[in-house]
Write a structure and sequence with these properties.
By secondary structure, this protein is of the alpha/beta class. The chain folds into two domains: 162 residues, 3-Layer(bba) Sandwich (Glucose Oxidase, domain 1), CATH 3.50.30; 207 residues, Rossmann fold (3-Layer(aba) Sandwich). Strands 12-14-13-15-16-21-20-19-17-18 form a ten-stranded mixed β-sheet, with helices on both faces. Strand 17 and strand 18 form a beta hairpin. The protein is globular and about 65 Å long.
């Protein structure tokens, strides 16, 4: 391992890059994407496909994403697969960056896309070793630099003082600033309206509702209860999003007040945690989180197991669920909670992503169950 200053480019013309973790460990590779320096929480995703969807997933705000699948960028970039208006990750880590993608829908390379989106990346490091380290020690803060002359010792010092993004209001950085109305697909109107609290909502959540004939009113995460009720909703959807759920006090207050109306509620990912907190439960941080497309979840009281897509770093504490609530799904890998449901009222939520994108669509039927709850409640 070289120490001191590293030149901007190697003899081959490649940019040199470093990833330094908060414990002082150094990972040296080549730079791609935008030139720059970025810090955040270093996390890994084990998915084999769906890198454009992952990069644009607002739940990754404040995080440096490491892909464990070795070849990334091989089918290029197609904006139709984006789950938001652009990349939400802080920086990107891959083993091999494909510079010559092959797909008829590709409009540009991953490298070009990250450059224009101002997201720095590093490739050529041992992503398997990095992932194993994170699995042992848990997610860690880190800093990535791939521009100019890099001073390793200075980066090590900076890495010791990286602010934890989970202590900031990350949701406010990714939520919509305006109210957006999504009309149901023509000929499928069911006369139902859902208010979607956007905590960093993936686009496919609204699509899964509109293609089922439901009108969706997407509102900012901090929208107060009186504004929510002014839309006369038949149901409330609480979306996915980044960071510590306990930072979202305004959203929790609105969800708690909404439940007093006994109108159906459906939470996804962060929405599962926010619903638990609004009900009087508790959440905690996972060691390294669940970020993949193959998490097995068992439905409580049955022998049915579903393979799910997930992206979260916090979980609901089932031991602190209030009376009237019960666990709905459980992760078969580590036993953590994957959903809660009320025993007598129309409130439910899941920790995984029934809308997928990327991942299996095994649990998309939950949108139909939500619609059934709304119909029966009218």
């Amino acid at each position: 391992m070289k120490v001191g200053f590293i030149a901007k480019e190697s003899e081959s013309g490649e940019r040199r890059a470093l990833l330094v973790l908060e414990d002082g460990s150094v990972w040296e590779g080549s730079g791609f994407g935008a030139e720059g320096k970025a810090s955040g929480e270093v996390v890994f995703n084990t998915g084999m496909v769906g890198y454009p969807e992952a990069i644009t997933d607002p739940s990754y705000k404040g995080q440096i994403l490491c892909q464990t699948y070795p070849l990334i960028g091989n089918y290029g970039v197609n904006p139709s697969s984006f789950e938001s208006d652009g990349p939400k990750i802080t920086a990107y880590i891959v083993y091999e960056n494909c510079l010559k993608p092959s797909h008829n829908s590709s409009s540009k390379t991953l490298d070009a896309w990250l450059k224009e989106s101002n997201v720095p990346g590093i490739y050529g490091i041992d992503t398997r070793a990095l992932t194993k380290k994170l699995r042992v020690h848990g997610v860690m803060l880190g800093i990535l630099q791939n521009d100019g002359n890099i001073d390793i010792e200075k980066l090590k010092q900076e890495a010791k003082g990286i602010p934890d993004p989970n202590r900031t209001e990350l949701v406010e950085q990714v939520t919509t600033k305006d109210v957006i109305v999504h009309k149901p697909e023509n000929g499928k109107e069911k006369g139902l309206k859902v208010v979607l609290i956007d905590c960093g909502a993936k686009r496919n959540i609204a699509r899964c509702l509109t293609k089922r004939g439901v009108e969706v009113v997407q509102v900012p995460a901090s929208t107060p209860i009186d504004r929510i009720m002014s839309y006369k909703p038949d149901g409330l959807m609480i979306s996915n999003g980044p960071g510590d759920p306990k930072m979202n006090t305004k959203t929790i207050e609105s969800v708690r007040a909404f439940m007093e109306y006994n109108i159906p509620v459906f939470g996804i990912c962060l929405g599962n945690q926010l619903l638990a907190l609004a009900a009087g439960g508790d959440t905690y941080k996972l060691k390294f989180g669940h970020r993949s497309q193959n998490q097995p979840c068992l439905e409580s009281g049955t022998s049915r197991c579903y393979i799910t897509s997930q992206n979260h770093g916090f979980a609901v504490d089932v031991a602190k669920l209030p009376a009237g609530w019960r666990p709905w799904f459980t992760n078969l890998n580590d036993g953590t909670n994957e959903g809660i449901i009320h025993e007598s009222r129309p409130f439910m939520s899941v920790q995984f992503h029934p809308e997928a994108c990327p991942g299996p669509v095994d649990t998309e039927f939950l949108f139909d169950r939500f619609i059934k709850n709304m119909r029966e409640n009218k």
